[in-house]
Amino acid sequence: MSLVELIAQADERGLAASGLACLDRCLPLLGGDDELLRPLWASLADGSDWGPGLEKARAALGPGEAAGSTESAESAESAGSAGSTESAGSAGSTAPEASVGDEAVRLARRMLDAAPAERAADAVRPWADACSVASLRIHRLLDPAADGTPGADGLDAGRAGDTADLPPLVAAELRRQAAVLELLAGHGANGLRRALDVSVEGRRVLRAVVSRRARSAAEPGV
């Protein structure tokens, strides 16, 4: 089943976990503590309100965009959209390293800012979908194998099931997104622990990528 189909069929908890996992994997870009989003995961497990956890996370990371509104969700989706020429261009080899990093950070922050305060399925479905696209775009921006690949974005095709042309970091992120949705669909709340493990693994991978890029940028003559 494609990622698009998994998102379309997911329930409220699965959608919330999917979007949260995307955000959790991208925390290294925001400088957030690894435990910052744990209260949100806990709220998915016990069914409690995640609004206070959202506000605490936003406050810990400093001012951002307006949270929880439809406009913010649409903004996050447009920022992550595979049709964004500006974003796609920033992934190319001619883009300054700082602009690539800034774009990745912007996409990650918008995932948090656009998270709906209420976890109703109608609210979290567009957010989860936007987070999926934004996280894949972040991984493409930072994937060394994607640098200089002319016009090879492929995120829409990958989400629809055609993963042949995706660079390695993006393909791995796509698999993690599918794994989280499958775990929640198959095990409900009991799948949250394994979904969190999948997210933690992805966060470590992204942190390593960010660190390598920072070291490369600091080397003389790079």
TrEMBL record:
Q: Which intervals of the chain are annotated as region Disordered?
A: 61-100
What segments bear the compositional bias annotation Low complexity?
62-99
Record-given protein name = Uncharacterized protein
Write down the species.
Streptomyces actinomycinicus
